[in-house]
Amino acid sequence: MWRAAAASRRRVCHLATCALKKLVCGGTAVGDAAVASLPPGLEELHVGGCEGITAGVSFGHLAALKKLVCRGTAVGDAAVASLPPGLEELHVGGCEGITAGVSFGHLAALKKLVCYGTAVGDAAVAMLPRGLEELDVGGCRDITAGVSFGHLRALKKLVCYSTAVGDAAVASLPPGLEELDVGCCEGITAGVSFGHLAALKKLDCWGQRWVMRRWHRCRRGWRSCM
Questions:
Q1: 223 vs 111, which has greater pLDDT?
Q2: Cβ atoms within 10 A of the Cβ of 191, count?
């Protein structure tokens, strides 16, 4: 009888695993082998800070994956390349394995990309899917003054603090942008204009004293600031 009960428990556990849609296990010892054992129907996975995740990890079998959080791991370009095209949200901030040669171009459904503190540069930005709505490249050392966001017409939020982003990059931003963080971007000059960003709701420009002086002179909203 106890054997039948044990078998029943195993079947229940197996069914539960197969039905798993979301797994949060950040900061644990979870590694590549555990990821490989995950059910293909998984839609959301959080493995941020898991030291067992190596550069050789693959997410290729997770065809239904919509959101992946793996910040602060050894995830690199190969792991990104293994991601399914239906992925909508990706967090790879602080992943040292991400190089300037990484491509997110195959992630056609991507809506949000957080990759602060990585080697992501102008080339990777140029290949981002046009439907992207949120992008965080704060502290990315390979983002230069020549970067353009002009093809990202659906972009709503851009975080690019402490990069070489300058006036030309700001001018390339789409009019529908709602949030912008250009704090400590030395390329931003007193001649920059945000006037074309008609939908802008929040502007972070800490470290730019001239912007703050202009802000304090405003009396009737954004348009009077430009």
A1: 111
A2: 7
Cα–Cα distance list, 181 to 194, 208, 216 (Å): 12, 11, 18
User: What are the φ/ψ torsions at residue 165 (nearest 5 degrees)?
Assistant: -55, 135
Range 50-73 burial, b when 16+ CB lie within 10 A, else e: bebbeeebebeebeebbbbbbbbb
CA distance 1 to 184: 69
**Element housing 18 (H / E):** helix 2-18
Rounded mean pLDDT, 114-120: 98
The answer to whether 64 and 86 have CB atoms below 8 angstroms apart is: yes
Q: Which residues are CB-contacts of 33 (< 8 A; sequence separation ≥ 6)?
A: none
Q: Is 7 helix (H, G, I), strand (E, B) or coil?
A: helix
Q: Are 182 and 204 in contact (CB under 8 A)?
A: yes
Q: Do residues 70 and 96 lie in contact, with contact meaning Cβ atoms separated by under 8 Å?
A: no
Task: Render pLDDT for 118-157 as a digit per residue (tens, 0 to 9).
Answer: 999 999 999 999 999 999 999 999 999 999 999 999 999 9
Helix or strand run (H / E) with residue 114: strand 112-114
Neighbours of 190 (CB within 10 A): 11
The whole-number pLDDT of residue 53 equals 98
For residue range 79-96, what is the model confidence (pLDDT) as tens digits?
999 999 999 999 999 999
**Cβ atoms of residues 57 and 37 within 8 Å:** no
Tens digits of per-residue pLDDT, 24-67?
A: 999 999 999 999 999 999 999 999 999 999 999 999 999 999 99
